[in-house]
Amino acid sequence: MPNRRHLLVLVPAVFAGCSTLPGSDPPRVSVAGLEPLAGQGLELRFLVKLRLQNPNDAPLDYRGVFVELDLRGQPFGAGVSDAAGSVPRFGEAVVGVPVTVSALDVARQLLGVVGGSAEGPVRYALRGKLAGPSFGGLRFESQGEFAWPAARL
């Protein structure tokens, strides 16, 4: 028969697992915008705005966000935020995550533009995790594309 210590550990674990029961769908995460931030040294920084959509009948609470961004199949940047919030049931929210991009990754992307491989829309892949009450957080993946801004001469 379990003692009280076992119950103190077991009960929260069962309730935390309820958010990952079969029948709940993963959140949909997409890039809603990019804003430049001040960088340091040989890095660029952007505020990546993520649109979180919750397709479930229960709110989605999070306490931190991690994101990795690839452009044209190449690693581009990563970032973390200790942002906390809740996405309402069948609702959406926008959260900003500062993403750092190394000079090497910027040069690789610029070479692709100069080499002509950047014609047309640019494909991106987004991976990350929403930290929250469930064990290990809630992982997500997303893909999409955007057009390079027109060059001004």
What does this structure look like?
The chain has 153 residues and is of the alpha+beta class. It has one domain: Immunoglobulins (Immunoglobulin-like), CATH 2.60.40.10. The chain has helices spanning 4-17, 103-114; strands at 28-37, 43-53, 60-71, 74-87, 92-102, 122-130, 138-146.
Poorly predicted runs are: 4-21
* Strand content range: over 45%
CATH class: Mainly Beta
Counted up, domains total: 1
End-to-end separation in angstroms reads 77 Å
Mean pLDDT level: 79
> What's the CATH H-level homologous superfamily?
Immunoglobulins
What percentage of residues falls in helices of 4 or more residues?
10-25%
Dominant shape? globular
Structural class based on helices, strands and sheet pairing: alpha+beta
Query: Mind telling me which CATH architecture this is?
Result: Sandwich
Largest sheet: 7 strands, antiparallel
Per DSSP, the total helix count is 2
In the CATH hierarchy, the third-tier topology is known as Immunoglobulin-like
- Backbone CA Rg: 19 Å
* Strand order in space, largest sheet: 1-2-5-4-3-6-7
Number of strands: 7
SSE string, helix = H, strand = E? HEEEEEHEE
